[in-house]
């Protein structure tokens, strides 16, 4: 409060004046001697009875009037910290609020309130200053940027949308959120359009151009107190191999976890401790003395700006997976020697996962666990044990690429290609040169251009019942499928009605074959998504009819895109996934290393808000105080008239 405001409120001290006036009006009577007074019985002096205040209602009214007068004089000078819109004219405003719900907004301000809570409070203050005809849109800036509310003139709906927002552990996508906000209000009829950013601007790109620079639509970066710098350390991962636990620690730029301790707990029991690394990012190795009972959790001791990222679930170390290739290596090798063509083609794609040839298809599902995809090139049928292992592999999300050729058509008795195909395959002559140019689907359009004239005298023909269960991606010119897929459990099977041998066709020599392989590998990666990933990185569950996901704070909504479920974890921690067949698995969401950079990004000078908003607004209550003062004046007049007409009876 300023000195002038305090001086104006000091007028309230004049409330003593009515009290003094009432007391002075009740002076004590003068004593005069009277000889006959001894004949009158003693009685208390009237002046003593009058020494107390009379007309207390009138006194109270006058005192309140003085206080109201002091408040009326001080009200234009009193200001409070709150957000409000400045209007250059009486026209309505189209306002897009960008509210940052990323992990860095969990940091606390000096008053103990989190940055997110202050930003949410500021958004509500802006809505309170909105008028009839104003349009409001709300965008959440946690990665990926999301529309919390499309542009609307219903302020109550905007308030409800704000109530639905909560803190998360996402990274920050300020540029995407601002672009989305501009698009939401850009086509509205209001002439005055603005974007208000309520964020700490810690998006991990402090070296990029300032926020709002060069923007055609005014951008107001409000609440500068949110942009306080800070430091944070986090556990990015914790992997266990035997009794050895490797913990990955990362910190804000310039900060380390030196002097802090890493604790491993199983339930409530501490099973091991170790020192945090002196530099970051770096790994700390903690050794267990014995096999723990229960789930292991790693914790980083000490305190920093954010505590939710100091805990990580310990997972068993596993490799990135591999692709298994099963076929007749002698028949599939090139004439010049070397590896089979299918292996050479996979190597040409420069994949991040390995390719492992194995002689025969395994008979146990456990032997397929290291693989994310299996290539079966013209297999001579599968035994019952192999079919059971194949079914379990696809039920758990595995993807198979099955090439059909002459050996698949002459499978021995008791062997078949179930569960992919229920009927036998025929190997017959073909009179069409290649693929139908109008048949490609699902991204094979470009690849099909090189498969229109295939040199193939024979091809595999499928039973009509099996064709009815397939989804054709590419067809022969006379209609049967050349490339097709089929969902099996949580996995998929891709079928090609030509083998990968150059003796049967020139399919493997065409550029379109590499495109086909690349699509299949990408599909295998999608099905075998990692059990651990960064917050908000989608987990994909293709081929699942129903899905239930429970996160650290309860159920998490899953979105369906065709036959694929998509889940974006918003918080750090464990997620329990239950499938429609009753199977369960645990997935872990980890913090984004980029979000640990809490240095605020610069804001352009024209985003300070002097022209279209401000962070301090006057509290205009003078009209309310004036009405109260007028009412008190009327009451005083009424009381004076009443007290003059009604006089007490003298004793």
From TrEMBL:
Tell me which domain of life the UniProt entry assigns to the organism this sequence originates from: Bacteria
Q: Where is the VWFA domain?
A: 96-200
Give the Aerotolerance regulator N-terminal domain ranges: 1-76
Q: Name one Pfam family in it.
A: BatA
Q: Transmembrane helix as a keyword? A: yes
Name this protein carries in UniProt: VWA domain-containing protein
From what organism does this protein derive?
Answer: Pendulispora rubella
Keyword list, A-Z: Membrane, Transmembrane, Transmembrane helix
Lineage start:
Bacteria, Pseudomonadati, Myxococcota, Myxococcia, Myxococcales
Give me the segments passing through the membrane: 6-22, 57-78
Stored SUPFAM superfamilies: Class I glutamine amidotransferase-like, vWA-like
